[in-house]
Amino acid sequence: MTLSRRLTAILLSAALMGLAACGTGGNVPTEQPSFYRSLAQPGAQLDAAAAASIFSGYRSNNGLDALTLDPELMKLAEAQAGAMAKRDKLDHKVSKPFVARLKASGYDAKIAAENIGAGYHTLAEAFSGWRDSPPHRKNMLLAGATRMGIAAVYAPNSKYKVFWSLIVAAPDEKKG
Hints:
This protein is an alpha+beta fold. The chain contains six helices and four strands. It has helices at about 5-20, 50-60, 70-85, 100-105, 125-130, 135-140; strands spanning about 70, 110-120, 145-155, 160-170. The N and C termini lie far apart (about 80 Å).
């Protein structure tokens, strides 16, 4: 038997043993991680805590501070994603420009940035899409940011199906 055939036999044997183990009910996860859960369906909810963990881990790997969920930024992200979904339009200015929305909310930010997206059906897709885009990655890795808000809004009649908004910021502790 040639080396190639032996290797194929070994791999096939290992695969069959792996398949046999699948039916044992042992350590096979029963639920898909929220990172991979499709949000392109009615009632689907974004796991914001998982998002904060993922973005914080990415920032940590790049020598930056972790992000905590901020209720005000969550509301702002939800409003932006909702406005884009309602108008079926991917645009930072769909209601007002980002800085104007931030000021109108009363959120005092020392620094802030926003990523938007559409067509990503899972948190994994949104994260990967932003990470692989230099301007979006720059926002995710905004030095000094400590807070975040994130939202995904389902739009069943849109070709995109899901609209996203991510806001990272550092509150201006000196004001107010």
